[in-house]
Amino acid sequence: MKFSVGDPVYVKSSGEEGQLVEFISHDVAKVRVKNQEFHAFLDDLEHPYLRWFLNKNKNQPSVTRVDQIRADKSQNRDKQLDDGMYILFVPQFVVDEFDEEMTHLKIYFYNESAFSYQVHYQCNHKSERLFDLPCEVLPQATFYIHDISFEAAASNPEFVLRFVRQDDARLDWEGRIVLKAKKFQASVHQVRHENKPSFHFKIF
User: Do the domain assignments include residue 55?
Assistant: First the structure.
């Protein structure tokens, strides 16, 4: 996981949020929490943005990543959206003393339903395939897919999707979603000016 100086961070071992002050070495950083500074291993840090979205009370959510293959069947989270399947974008920023710059976005499936789905996902940009993934998304699960650069996200990327419900293969959904530049810029504007951690679009 990449961090930059100034990033808000969540310290997994203590359950506290703070700010990354500086890098001490390739695997250690100085972190400030409640006006106290200490050294922490980068492995003990994570970005808090998705945590803010998933649980306003900041209870620890379970986020499934690609290398886990299957989501944790025991995970549970509060309901945040209407029933359905969503694609969720979490902007990542680099902060300096003058401004903050959005460098890339993390993309997630957000399953706000009681059903498991087998999914085939493709992300294309200017006739180039950026990412291709078959995966399983469990009920009430959040599944990390991949990162996309700000430049690619701002220039009409296409998402080719197929969802097949586990309990009935006849109940499937297949289609394409194009993230239009105008819609993307409007979503980024909303994130910045309303101080939101993410934006999303409903798939079905």
Answer: no
- Per-residue pLDDT reduced to its tens digit, 129-165: 999 999 999 999 999 999 999 999 999 999 999 999 9
pLDDT of residue 70: 43
The total number of structural domains in the chain stands at 2
Are both 182 and 151 inside the same structural domain?
yes
How many percent of the chain have pLDDT more than 70? 85
- Residue 56 has a pLDDT of 53
Q: Say if residue 104 is in the same domain as residue 38.
A: no
User: CATH no. for residue 190?
Assistant: 2.60.40.1600
For residue 47, give the nearest of 71, 17, 23 by alpha carbon.
17
